[in-house]
Amino acid sequence: MRELFSDAELNGPKPYNPHVCGTKGTESKSQAESMQQIIYQTENFVKTTLHTDSTGHDFYHAFRVRDGALNIAKTEPGDKVVIELAALLHDISDYKFNGGDERKGGRVARAFLTDAGLDEYRVDRVVEVVNTVSFRGAHAESSHLVSEAKIVQDADRLDALGAIGIARCFAFGGHRGHPIYDPMVPVKMHSSFEEYKNHEGTSVNHFYEKLLLLKMRMNTPTGQAMAEKRHHFMQQFLDRFHTEWKGLV
């Protein structure tokens, strides 16, 4: 259970200052406790909603992204309350599992946070993050990201790299019925989001179509440094995979 937020983290950003994680303020203890209660409610909502997922997009993924985002936020500008809530809710209704509705996650997040009593500014900010952090394809145009979205996106992408990223890739591929690998199926570098989200390839191809591209698309210095290490581990795995595929070891 996390400690209560500091006054600086909890002070409402109106007007928003993009150079600090919150501004100096005089939040009362009761206000801090109220905000912490919204965090707890969000954790429970995410856990209840995603507890049956077996694709690598379960509540543990959301919690890891939250923890990673808060770690990155130690050295990056942004409202930490928005960052934590958006990270927890970023996959609350993923288009890959809801029939292709790219905006449903934002609508679900808005309804939940409004009902929980979060202020309108932060609700809008969380929804914007939820709606813009997804990968859109190798050559697809990227969305303009607010500061909190850059942090959450980096944390989400880090969870697609390294040992956990490898495990999640094959979990998702198995769920979708994708072959592990087929050397006759070419890698596809998608030029649009529509092309990317409708493509059916192999799990190993997904490394080349998305995962190995992420290192160069991180938004923050902390994210870039962490991605470098995870990318290297993933590349070592692929080198070994292809060697074993050929029966050489």
Descriptive tags:
249 residues; mainly alpha; Hypothetical protein af1432; 57% helix; disordered N terminus
Distance between the termini: 46 Å
State the total count of DSSP E strands.
Answer: 0
Mass-distribution shape: globular
Mind telling me the CATH class? Answer: Mainly Alpha
Would you tell me the structural class of the helices and strands? mainly alpha
CATH topology: Hypothetical protein af1432
Largest sheet features: none
CATH architecture: Orthogonal Bundle
Based on CA atoms alone, the radius of gyration comes out at 19 Å
Point out poorly predicted stretches. 1-26, 137-141
Number of individual domains = 1
The helix/strand order is: HHHHHHHHHHH
Structure notes:
The chain has helices at 7-10, 29-50, 59-72, 80-89, 104-116, 120-132, 147-158, 162-176, 193-198, 203-209, 221-245. Helix 3 crosses helix 7, helix 4 (80-89) crosses helix 7 and helix 5 runs antiparallel to helix 6 (120-132). The protein has 249 residues and is an all-alpha fold. The termini are far apart. It has eleven helices and no strands. The chain has one domain (7-245): Orthogonal Bundle (Hypothetical protein af1432). The model is unreliable at 1-26 and 137-141 (pLDDT under 50).
